[in-house]
Write a structure and sequence with these properties.
This protein has 191 residues and is mostly helical. The chain is 48% helix and 8% strand. The chain contains 8 helices and 5 strands; from the N terminus they run E-H-E-H-E-E-E-H-H-H-H-H-H. Pfam families: Phage_lysozyme (PF00959).
Length: 191
């Protein structure tokens, strides 16, 4: 995860916020390094922000954003908010392009997550958000490999589901804040 202004901030808005988020200002080296503008920060109050906007903000924080091609932790050419490049031809994009890639990738992840467990509709919104984040990061095929986690979710055994997430290669490949956030959210059903 990239830090803005030289500091790393905890995720502050998984289901709280306002319609007009404030933006943290990047430090002077952020833009020169080809990094995206800071992700929105939503103050903690109970005004209306949609669940999907909250999940999007969480994923953006977990993914970080770069406007120049880089190799992700598994060696894939990536750009923007974790957008894997298929043809490896794009070297630099604009913030607008990064946002467009993100929206498309998010819709794909959301659709894919809905078909992963039979009890999707009965999961609370926090646990649905965890599955969307996982699919955004790993793809549907990658999350389908979490057979024991998915079985535990279908049995409403969320503690075991979280343990299965921790007992995976994924837990060693991604930023530890993502692992901690998502496993705690799966275990408790709370942000």
């Amino acid at each position: 995860m990239e830090s803005w202004g030289g500091e790393s901030k905890p995720f502050e808005a998984f289901f709280f916020g306002v319609l007009q988020p404030t933006m943290r200002q990047p430090n002077t080296s952020t833009l020169s390094q080809g990094l995206c503008l800071p992700y929105p920060e939503f103050p903690r109050d109970n005004s209306s922000i949609s669940l999907m906007e909250s999940v999007k903000a969480m994923i953006k924080r977990h993914e970080g954003c770069r406007l120049k091609t880089y190799n992700d932790t598994t060696g894939h050419k990536t750009i923007g908010y974790g957008h894997k490049q298929i043809h490896n031809t794009i070297q630099t994009i604009t913030q607008t392009q990064a946002d467009a890639f993100f929206e498309s990738d998010f819709q794909t992840a959301k659709s894919g997550a809905q078909g992963l467990v039979e009890n999707w509709a009965s999961l609370n919104s926090v646990r649905q958000g965890v599955l969307i984040d996982l699919v955004f990061n790993l793809g549907v095929a990658g999350v389908r490999n979490f057979r024991k986690m998915r079985a535990a979710i279908e049995d409403s055994d969320f503690s075991t589901a979280a343990d299965e997430m921790l007992d995976s290669r994924w837990a060693t490949q991604v930023q530890q804040d993502r692992v901690t956030d998502l496993t705690n959210m799966m275990r408790t059903g709370e942000e």
